[in-house]
Amino acid sequence: MDTINKNFQKKPTENIEYHCIDWWLLASVLIIVTFGLLMVLSAGSVVAERDFGDKYFFFKRQFAFVIFGFITLIFCTYLPRRIINNIHYLSIIAVIFLLLLTLSPFGSNVNGASRWIQIFGFSLQPMEFAKIALVLYLSYFLSTHQHLGQTFSKGVIPPFAITGILCMLLLLQPDFGACVILLAILFFLCLAGGTRFIYLAFSFTMMATMGISLMLNSTYRMRRLLAFIDPFKDAQGTGYQLVQSFYALAEGGYLGVGMGNGRQKLLYLPEAHNDFIVSVIGEELGLLGITLMMGLFMIIFARCYRIILGQKNLHDKLMAFGLTLIIVLGTTLNLAVIMGMVPPKGVAMPFLSYGGSSLLASMICMGLLLNYSRTVHFDEKKPTKRLTNKTQMQKVEYA
Fold it and tell me: In angstroms, what CA-CA distances link 47 with 57, 160, 181, 272, 282?
């Protein structure tokens, strides 16, 4: 067993042959980030004018986030693979420390939740980086301990314990939705890493029971759940945000009312430049704009899928899969919230929503995926020569 474990640990540090980055992926990311920057200007100008006296306030800050995020993307793209493969424990420790800071006097309390840390006038949300840290750890653990994936005590408990610690700290903020995202990452990565499904089903049944218990014993979570079931029942209260999102999407129709001409952002739709920016896109650019936006996301997902398949060893495959999963989950949950398919939860739309932490985390994911795109390798199948009847006859004659 020790020999097998050592062999697995050596794989990520083998000599790697690097190729050119995936330019399709990079171009798609740059286009959608630029589009997001324009939509932040359109969706946030009214609120910025009211709160800060400068309608370009959110645009300027988001532009600074984009520049810093692009620098981070380039850094991650050319980060040596040996560093990526050996920072799993350090990243988990750093994220736990940051999550503890949110619960200390250094944390910033907004609407009864302590999810941010104020650093030089900017708010940092550690939860966004907890997802990346968890992917780093799980990819390492599942690839180096694959032979233990069939055992519960050594193959299941350690990754569940680390995820449980992160979820416990998030619940203290409180941030129930973030726990759901981390558990989804854990489930899909363990499934891809070879953990027995019966263990996963048993563990997640227990977690689901605990989650339902938390919802039933929390007044504000129950209010959100009831608002999700029938938002129009309390359209001026708990269901207000979701109802305004529906109005925005309905108003847009097929072609939209035009960029900058939306009405729901005029202090009707809360968080129009943030979690509900897609509703503004739907109103101003219509179904056509939503379709083009989703087309860009589909190109990104398709290129990420190609990167996952092109990795040689298990660790790199799991890393690429986990990083892609972060973007896929964020996109899916955000769309589900604005369409009323899941209870309201503050999930930012990757690359589009206003916010430095979300954008920076998304750019780190893309930078690392571009790093893995440099080692995509597909075995070329040698074409089989098809013998014609004439060639077969000649071979028979020679025989």
Answer: 9, 42, 29, 9, 19
Structural tokens at position 104 = 């200390």
**CB contact at 8 A, 98 and 56:** no
Integer-rounded Cα radius of gyration of the chain: 24
> Where do the domains of the chain lie?
2-398
Helix residue spans in the chain (DSSP H):
2-10, 23-52, 57-77, 81-84, 88-102, 126-144, 152-155, 157-171, 176-193, 197-216, 219-229, 240-252, 277-309, 314-338, 356-373, 389-398
* 190 neighbors 138 (Cβ within 8 angstroms): yes
The Cα–Cα gap between 354 and 69 comes to: 13
Interatomic CA distance for residues 115 and 110, integer angstroms: 8
pTM score: 0.87
Angle at 351 between CA 314 and CA 126, to 5 degrees: 70
Both tokens of residue 271? 């968080």
The residue type of 31 is I
- The C-alpha atoms of residue 108 and residue 173 are separated, in whole angstroms, by 10
CA 377 to each of CA 20, 309, 312, 371: distance values in angstroms, whole numbers, following the listed order: 11, 8, 7, 13
Per-residue pLDDT of the chain (399 residues; tens, 9 = 90+): 343 344 444 444 456 777 888 999 999 999 999 999 999 999 998 899 988 888 999 999 999 999 999 999 999 999 999 999 999 999 999 999 999 998 888 878 776 678 888 887 778 899 999 999 999 999 999 988 766 656 666 777 888 899 999 999 998 888 888 888 999 999 999 888 887 778 778 777 877 787 777 777 767 677 777 777 778 887 787 788 888 989 999 998 899 999 888 888 888 888 888 889 999 999 999 999 999 999 999 999 999 999 999 998 899 999 999 999 999 999 999 999 888 888 777 788 999 999 889 999 999 999 999 999 999 887 655 444 444 454 444 544 444
